[in-house]
Recover the amino acids of this structure.
């Protein structure tokens, strides 16, 4: 009996082993690691929705290299440890030749050693910490702007805000602290005083202590860097505590329509740095691409608030597929080489990579467009 | 000075809900001696019930609050009957493992039903806060504070002066003797777990409209509840209430004057220091020996 059981098990194993590569040849798999649950779940879900639009569009047009693409999506649970586990699973288990992820700088930085270890390229669609492209990891291809680029872009328009003294309230991780550092540097360069720099745990919901300190600092403008969930809490609690600062959010994950519906009147008067302005797709550098994407999003009945985040997934997958096409085969090393030369007409703008980081092991960085919008009387308007 | 006053006011309001979480757990963990890992999920459950009643079903806010607490008690009673009753007399490790399993199962269930995306709950209170000089506080936080204090006082009274409270204390001091004296100990177990769960659900239902509601919101709440119970002394309702306020004060002042990045660490640091000097907590009841 024991013998039969064992042989059945072996036969089953052999079957799996035989059928595995056969199945893998029908499609080209692309790994995706996003926070689908936990503290920043809204953003991760929106990114995946955008990525799926790109997947369907590419497959409807015949796929790439004569094969359909298939996204293998893993939930990194808003947790850097889980992000590492998803990368390991995607690379070792699913044998994906390329992946996209991992939303937050902290999750992306956690995943990066795995890319080095296994030699698999990753398109980074959201993270903005400078460290990602300057630490000498040649498998990184970032399409989102660094905090430094964002700060510099904002710097050209800072005069319109009449800031005299700025305070910061940022999420206590690589993303938030990196943004505070770069924006404070930019503001000081313009002769603007920097008051307090307060941090908040990514999971924190009660921010009253930080806001009391911001209120007492006597600044006129508050820069907030976090996901939309925490920005909602900050805006609501700032109103409760009568913090009169003008609010500017950075990082592009503020989903203004979600703020309007969840923070209500507390969202009025706040300003947001974004990398796509879906209210005005005609003003995008590639208006046709942007309009088509917005139309498809609406057709799928997805939440409009998710567009400012969802486009990242769309642009990311488009970039990856352009890389696979240029490589001519679904091989990690070939895709890494080919990605350097891609030119993609994305929703944000034209995607192409420049070199960053130590010579010989540079990471790839795109130079994206930055937009600023304002919420006025429950509506979004362009600055 | 204004900043200090604002910090103290914030800490008082936050402390009310911490205290509520703490006394709910002290009944179950401190008196029943069940290491209740589902406490945070009951908190989350209360918040989601509040969301369901107020948002899709458009129920009156105050009625929704009562319904959320009642359903939380019912869920607590079900957990007691289904999971804990068969384990009477089992060792603490077995119970602990079952409760960890229940915690994970409940959290995944919430995620399955309501998805991982945070939900917000509308409230009927004025948007403009109450302003006293340079400090201010929102009306809903005042409401939450008042309700939390009422529940704390009510629970203390229940345990100290009612027949049920006496039966509870007798049962968990010496189950066999209590049974011999004619106390229906099964009902007492169910009632205690249900009340503790109801208090957690109440905390969730009260805080849901102030913050946002998501499946993992209970994790930090549960961690803090355990800390508060241990700080106040196992089984002491008054201790748990005071422990809640101490933790809130420490977090608020620590974040305000030392470092906001280590806000949660401040509270736990204080607990370590207190336990060094008073290993049984601040207000532990004397253990009966023999």
């Amino acid at each position: 009996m024991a013998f039969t059981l064992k042989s059945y098990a072996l036969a089953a194993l052999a079957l799996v082993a035989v059928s595995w590569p056969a199945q893998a040849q029908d499609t080209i798999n692309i790994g995706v690691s996003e926070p689908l649950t936990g503290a920043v779940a809204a953003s991760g879900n929106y990114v995946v929705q955008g990525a799926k639009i790109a997947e369907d569009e590419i497959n409807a047009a015949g796929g790439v290299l004569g094969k359909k693409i298939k996204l293998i999506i893993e939930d990194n649970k808003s947790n850097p440890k889980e992000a590492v586990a998803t990368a390991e699973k995607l690379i070792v288990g699913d044998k994906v030749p390329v992946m996209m992820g991992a939303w937050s700088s902290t999750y992306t930085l956690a995943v990066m050693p795995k890319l080095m270890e296994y030699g698999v390229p990753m398109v980074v669609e959201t993270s903005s910490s400078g460290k990602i492209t300057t630490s000498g990891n040649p498998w990184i291809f970032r399409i989102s702007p660094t905090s430094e680029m964002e700060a510099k872009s904002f710097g050209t328009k800072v005069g319109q805000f009449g800031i005299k003294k700025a305070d910061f309230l940022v999420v206590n991780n690589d993303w938030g602290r990196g943004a505070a550092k770069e924006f404070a540097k930019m503001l000081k360069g313009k002769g603007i005083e920097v008051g307090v720099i307060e941090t908040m745990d990514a999971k924190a919901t009660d921010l009253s202590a930080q806001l009391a300190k911001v209120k007492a600092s006597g600044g006129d403008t508050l820069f907030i860097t976090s996901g939309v969930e925490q920005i909602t809490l900050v805006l609501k609690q700032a109103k409760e505590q009568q913090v009169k600062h003008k609010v500017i959010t950075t990082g592009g994950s503020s989903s203004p329509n979600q703020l309007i519906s969840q923070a209500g009147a507390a969202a009025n008067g706040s300003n947001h740095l974004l990398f796509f302005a879906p209210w005005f797709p005609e003003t995008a550098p590639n208006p046709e691409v942007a309009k088509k994407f917005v139309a498809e999003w609406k057709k799928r009945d997805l939440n409009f608030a998710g567009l400012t985040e969802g486009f990242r997934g769309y642009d990311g997958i488009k970039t990856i597929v352009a890389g696979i096409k240029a490589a001519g085969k679904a091989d990690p090393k070939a895709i890494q080489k080919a990605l350097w030369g891609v030119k993609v007409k994305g929703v944000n703008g034209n995607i192409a990579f420049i070199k960053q980081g130590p010579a010989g092991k540079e990471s790839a960085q795109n130079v994206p467009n930055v937009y600023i919008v304002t919420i006025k009387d429950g509506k979004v308007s362009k600055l | 000075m204004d900043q200090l006053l604002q910090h103290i006011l914030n800490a008082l309001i936050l402390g009310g809900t911490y205290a509520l979480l703490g006394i709910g757990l002290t009944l179950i963990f401190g008196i029943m001696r069940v290491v209740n890992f589902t406490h945070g999920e009951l908190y989350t459950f209360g918040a989601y019930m509040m969301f369901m009643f107020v948002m899709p079903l458009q129920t009156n806010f105050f009625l929704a609050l009562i319904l959320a607490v009642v359903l939380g008690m019912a869920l607590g009673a079900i957990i007691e009957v289904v999971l804990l009753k068969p384990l009477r007399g089992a060792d603490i490790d077995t119970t602990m493992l079952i409760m960890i399993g229940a915690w994970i199962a409940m959290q995944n269930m919430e995620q399955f039903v309501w998805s991982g995306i945070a939900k917000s709950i509308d409230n009927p209170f004025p948007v403009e806060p109450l302003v006293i000089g340079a400090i201010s506080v929102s009306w809903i936080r005042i409401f939450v504070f008042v309700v939390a204090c009422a529940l704390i006082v009510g629970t203390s009274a229940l345990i100290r002066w009612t027949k049920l409270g006496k039966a509870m204390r007798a049962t968990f001091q010496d189950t066999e003797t209590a049974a011999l004296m004619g106390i229906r100990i099964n009902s007492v177990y169910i009632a205690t777990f249900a009340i503790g769960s109801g208090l957690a659900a109440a905390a969730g239902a009260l805080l849901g409209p102030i913050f946002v509601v998501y499946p993992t919101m209970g994790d930090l709440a549960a961690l803090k509840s355990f800390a508060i119970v241990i700080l106040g002394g196992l089984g002491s309702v008054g201790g748990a209430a005071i422990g809640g306020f101490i933790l809130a004060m420490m977090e608020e002042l620590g974040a305000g004057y030392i470092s906001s990045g280590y806000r949660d660490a401040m509270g736990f640091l204080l607990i370590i220091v207190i336990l060094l000097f008073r290993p049984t907590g601040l207000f532990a009841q004397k253990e009966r020996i023999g």
Notes: Residues 114 and 215 of chain B are 8 Å apart (CA to CA). The longest helix of chain B spans residues 2-31. The mean pLDDT of chain B is 90. Strands of chain B lie at 130-132, 135-137.
